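Notes continue from the previous slide.

Worked example: a multi-chain complex. Inputs as given:
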Amino acid sequence: MTRPLIRTMTVIGVGLIGGSFARALKGSGAVERVIGVDRDQENLKTALELGVVDEAAPSLADGVRAADLVFLAVPVRSVAAVVAELAPHLAGGCIVTDGGSVKDELVRQCEALLPAGVAFVGGHPIAGTEHSGAAASFAELFKGRRCILTPTATTDAAALQTVRRLWEAAGSRVESMDPLTHDRVFAAVSHLPHMVAYALVHAVAASAEEEENILAFSAGGFRDFTRIASSDPVMWRDIALMNRGPLLDLLDRYADELAALRQRVESGDGTWLEQFFRTSKRLRDEIT
Amino acid sequence: MTRPLIRTMTVIGVGLIGGSFARALKGSGAVERVIGVDRDQENLKTALELGVVDEAAPSLADGVRAADLVFLAVPVRSVAAVVAELAPHLAGGCIVTDGGSVKDELVRQCEALLPAGVAFVGGHPIAGTEHSGAAASFAELFKGRRCILTPTATTDAAALQTVRRLWEAAGSRVESMDPLTHDRVFAAVSHLPHMVAYALVHAVAASAEEEENILAFSAGGFRDFTRIASSDPVMWRDIALMNRGPLLDLLDRYADELAALRQRVESGDGTWLEQFFRTSKRLRDEIT
């Protein structure tokens, strides 16, 4: 049992991420008491019954008043509204942190909304499962997974250190990155691939309306390849909107690559095509 | 032991597909004797030593002279040249068939090149592994997998029936489709996804040159998603060139979907984006 880093932590949104963070930190002794807040009263009741949280608060104001640290695990586009609502009720010295997958706009919103004496630290744990809700949460979710913290020039150093220790207590390997770099990285390795997959399903589905055999033969590789097009539409709407700038850059770059490829297919340039595919294979095989 | 359907089968290209077909048909008793031909003498020697083939022929002409059936398992763009070379040496009544993954142009080439009295049946077994060569072949490769035969108006009915029985003897579920329909279906469910993945790796790699963190974070979902960009560059060059028409149609349709999506990301149209993602998810989840 470590000496607690935090006496009272309030988790806003006790789903897979918020619930797992609560379980991990209570389990490791890094946090003494967890208060849960959730729009979904059924989910909050489940969290309380399962012992994911020690207390279920009836409102945001009630939930955060006694908090030494607030963990925001709500959809990225809800964060600003939630922070605006809870800000007046925070005690001085409180730390607010989050687990959202888009950071630049979100961090700027939070820093602007929180009063002096309250520190904000942006975070993004690279972890998840296909399930959601408090019942799906488990203490080991973050074990061995990376968590990126996104401090800015104004981030309080002590608060940053505390949040880092909490993620380490949850088993994460913690890295730091400025918020915009974070968003550019995830636009490339995650957000663009999701857009690519969503658009691909649409194109193939449109073709399948003309040729029914397409559906019959989409069960193999196509189904595997488009797995990420089954991701939560609301979450991905929010990510696309919140990470617009970096995502548009990547979408344009990708459209250029695709147009170049299309041109060489049309002109029948086998030398170019082989080289293009060979380079892709090499680059992809280099990823470890 | 079934009564043999074919006395002597010659396999041109004794790799994963050709070797596995030979093993499966000898194993089931559907074929009595297998002659192997291969540009790669080392591979052919291995095939002989492993008993994949009963005889290794020194040349195409020698290999096909005694054949009741010739199975072409060479790259799709080599088929025409191989057929032109072997055509003068075939016995009357011989059946020629193939296992290429593009059919329309290939079938027309073969039908034009083969002499009267020799039947051609186009085929495409939907099976494979990441390995290649005779040593990677195994009799069960086609078991339970689909094989598409692509007869045309001029295909000999008896030859078609024989080829169908051979694939059934290898354990395949055989379906028929006209060659162009086949190519449209596979442009959608396989060829377009490969192009999409190859272009995606290029776009992300170009971004990674500016932002090194991108490489560090590409090990997770991105690596899984782009697995098919590790496919054989020469094979995919040939597929892109041989299935140009249907592939260009799909590439254009896909580029349109992507441009529409980009437009709504730029304009911040959350309602449209959520609907687009929701439709993708529903369509993808419907694939069984």
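Summary box: Chain B touches chain A through 85 residues (CB under 8 Å). Chain B has a mean pLDDT of 95.
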